[in-house]
Design brief:
Distance between the termini: 24 Å
Helix content: 55-70%
Structural class: mainly alpha
Mean pLDDT: 90
Radius of gyration: 19 Å
Number of domains: 1
Amino acid sequence: MAKISNQIVERIEAIDQFRGFAIILMVVINYLSGIETIPDWLKHVPDIGMNFPDLGTPVFIFAIGLTYSLSYLRRCEKDGLKITLGHFLRRYLAFIGLGAIITAGQSALGIKTELLDWGVLQSIGLAGLLTLGVISTPTWTRLGVGLGLLALYQILLDQFWLEVVLGSQHGGLPGTLSWAAILILSTVLGDIFHDPKRRKSFPQLSLAFLLAGFALTILVPVSKNRVSASYDLITLGFSGLVFSIFYLANYKLPFFSAWGRNPLLLYLLAFLVTGLFVLPGVPWWYVEAPLWLIGIQTMILLLILSSVALYWEKKGFMFSM
């Protein structure tokens, strides 16, 4: 098993900043998704095509992939293989369990119509478990596995799964193969970034993924709802380029960093705070709210969560699951 270079053990601020950006993006997208007065370009595309909100989940998955391999190696060196595997199994099973609880709560509040909707946390959790099966393999082996999994999923989607996937949230169980491909390929980019000798090639490789995704749209339509191969490559490349901006800019961004220290807790807390706007059940207050009111509510949501994030940052609190 590879050893960790002493040059990469330090905490890289840009990763926390990017993770904070990713979770803020997901929180805002989730909040706006239940409001009818939001223009279509600020909503998920029902099928073929892509709007900015369709970037939320893959950006967060990319943030996980950036440190997945490094975290795995660190724990193996510190605690051994058995304990490390147990830790990662618990982590991603917890994602699935938390997602199921959130889905059930949304169903009870009437936000979701199906009790067994497959949510984003379930997708991430199962993708994390699938990635665990290959995380100890060499970087270029994972590249082949990720691309191969992407091709296999697209073939199965086109031949057998399209109706099931389109009728599910986040692609349902079949779509998890595609989310796993994004995560596995994200770990490849993570390896490139964390290797000082190869780090300079990180933006170029991210751009290559982005351009490959655009080229693939000739054969495969881009679609978040289908979790199509072109969608995966475009969002993977986009995420890598945005992270490159955070890293190369080298700015101190305490707001984003604070969010990035405890992303999962803030994501879960966002559902509770959103209840302040959803629970009254008055259409003009949330579902049919005018744009000016939506803006105020979004600012209040972010203000509450940012205050909590900055307080935790001040106290040095970090939650590691």
